[in-house]
Design a protein that fits this description.
The chain has 253 residues and is an all-alpha fold. Helix content is 76%, strand content 0%. Helix 10 packs antiparallel against helix 11. The protein starts with a helix and ends with a helix. The N terminus and C terminus are likely disordered.
Length: 253
């Protein structure tokens, strides 16, 4: 008899106790926070160079924000790859100019970090990505400066000097666009890859209307340099092709 009345009594007690308490919202919020922290750590671990560059840029832009307009311009000018600084402090400004931006430029830099630098770092590795970034930044700067100097000293060119010796020219666009050019090789199918490269170059050329002519020339040069730096990524792309080829054979078998 107890075997029949026991379950009934348990059901009555459960009904009297009411529904089980809902999980606390604070616990759910803490869980979401932990998950966000896990994702952020994973992002940093897989793209350490991109994270370090972004951190430098944020810190420097905040420092600049604290200065008056005159002081801000002076600091940026001293780190710029203008013709005067390149002649007097070439090594220092070629490195420093990639680490300074102003706060209004942060959204664009964040977009480049998310869509170009971090993906490239995860695919090609940190070392190769850093090498390509700085090769693009340095070589595009030197090529642009060389062309400018030649035009300024060629009388037949009639190219006016618009203050290139003291211009403010900082940022990560040259290096990032060079990495973007190299990243195009990750597209596996050659026809689509060629279309991707052509589209990238066309987009950069079209964006030239929003920049000074020498900056636009540097952007175009940086993308072409990224295409030419294929040997840097060739070992990684070769291993990837072998893996994809092996997977295709296994699937057919």
């Amino acid at each position: 008899m107890d075997s029949h009345t026991g379950p009934g009594r348990a059901e009555q007690e459960a009904a009297a106790a009411g529904p089980p308490p809902a999980p606390e919202r604070g616990g759910s919020g803490a869980l979401r926070l932990r998950r966000a922290g896990t994702r952020l750590r994973a992002w940093v671990v897989t793209a350490p160079a991109t994270t370090a560059l972004w951190t430098f840029l944020v810190v420097h832009s905040v420092v600049l924000f604290q200065l008056d307009p005159g002081g801000r311009a002076e600091v940026l000018r001293s780190h710029s790859t203008n013709l005067t600084q390149l002649a007097e402090h070439p090594v220092a400004v070629l490195v420093d100019s990639a680490l300074w931006i102003e706060i209004p430029d942060l959204p664009m830099v964040a977009l480049l970090a998310l869509c170009v630098l971090a993906p490239a770092e995860r695919r090609f590795g940190t070392f190769r990505t850093v090498v390509v970034f700085f090769l693009g930044h340095v070589l595009a700067t030197l090529v642009t400066a060389g062309v400018l100097t030649t035009l300024l000293h060629t009388e037949s060119a009639h190219f006016p000097d618009r203050g290139f010796g003291s211009a403010i020219d900082v940022g990560v666009s040259y290096g990032s666009l060079c990495v973007a050019g190299l990243l195009a090789y990750w597209v596996p199918r050659p026809p689509v890859r060629l279309l991707t490269m052509a589209g990238l170059l066309a987009a950069v050329v079209a964006s030239g209307r929003f920049f000074e002519d020498y900056t636009a020339f540097g952007h175009n040069t940086a993308v072409v340099l990224g295409f030419l730096l294929y040997p840097v990524a060739a070992p990684v792309l070769g291993r990837r092709a072998e893996v994809l080829g092996g997977a295709s054979v296994d699937a057919v078998g």
